[in-house]
Amino acid sequence: MSLLTLDHMKTDIGQYAVLHDVSLEVPEGGVFVLLGRNGAGKTTTLRSIMGLWKPSPGTVRFDGTDLTGLHTADIARRGIAYVPENMGIFGNLTVEENLILATDKGRFDQTRLKRITTLFPALERFWTKQAWSLSGGQKQMLSVARAIVEPRRLILIDEPTKGLAPAIVAAMAEAFTEISREATLLLVEQNFHFARSIGRDMAVIDDGRVVHSSSMADFAADKPLQDRLLGLS
Ligand SMILES: Nc1ncnc2c1ncn2[C@@H]1O[C@H](COP(=O)(O)OP(=O)(O)OP(=O)(O)O)[C@@H](O)[C@H]1O
């Protein structure tokens, strides 16, 4: 059984029909990558899963339970974390305070904290610094760290490599591969090189519809298909 199933999801934003027909099966474990051109509907798909937009009709099933219509907080409590494109961190709070706020009970599980600082050593170095003073890559690390400060089964991450230097992207790839040993990652990504280096499964959204879904290996081997769906050359 898939961990997450989107079944013919359609989402309107105000008067605009943005998602027309999004169906996806995300298996448990590993990294699933959602690709597609700008404005295709990838962010709207993540927001619809989190209940930030209300899909109708269509269903979102997570671990066998229908999430459709639940409040975002209830969806999060079931074990889904969301790292939005703007990262959702608090610039005037320290790294420590940003992480504490993401815990369920206002205190760290020391084993998890150790794991986070091992994955992202920069966060330990800048522990007492305000988040605004971090580099772009460090901010992105903090935003991902907030998502894993409690155990989660599914983590939705929107464009984690946007604007990052190649060395940071490589560090992200390693961290995501490690995180995907304990949680399923659903990534929206524009950087196809990064996506293919970590993705096990993938789908392409175009104009609010899933137009392709396969293993990443199959998609990566099909240049004409990449060119047609993503405009890569
Ligand atoms: N709040 C909104 N009001 C109206 N239209 C919106 C809103 N948010 C998104 N849209 C429109 O919905 C479509 C899909 O947007 P979405 O952000 O989901 O695309 P995306 O695939 O994530 O693209 P990008 O890579 O540019 O972020 C776009 O045409 C966008 O203009």
UniProtKB/TrEMBL annotation:
Q: Name one GO molecular function term.
A: branched-chain amino acid transmembrane transporter activity
Q: What is this protein called?
A: Amino acid/amide ABC transporter ATP-binding protein 2, HAAT family
SUPFAM superfamilies (UniProt xref): P-loop containing nucleoside triphosphate hydrolases
User: Do you know which PANTHER family this protein is assigned to?
Assistant: ABC TRANSPORTER ATP-BINDING PROTEIN, HIGH-AFFINITY BRANCHED-CHAIN AMINO ACID TRANSPORT ATP-BINDING PROTEIN LIVF
Domain of life per record: Bacteria
Ordered alphabetically, the record's keywords are: Amino-acid transport, ATP-binding, Nucleotide-binding, Transport
Record keywords: ATP-binding included? Answer: yes
The family line of this record is: Belongs to the ABC transporter superfamily.
SMART domains from the UniProt entry: AAA (SM00382)
What does the record give as the organism's lineage?
A: Bacteria, Pseudomonadati, Pseudomonadota, Alphaproteobacteria, Rhodobacterales
Disulfide bond as a keyword?
no
Show the CDD domains listed in the entry. Answer: ABC_TM1139_LivF_branched
| Domain ABC transporter: start-end pairs | 3-232
Pfam families this protein is in?
ABC_tran (PF00005)
One GO-annotated biological process of the protein:
L-amino acid transport
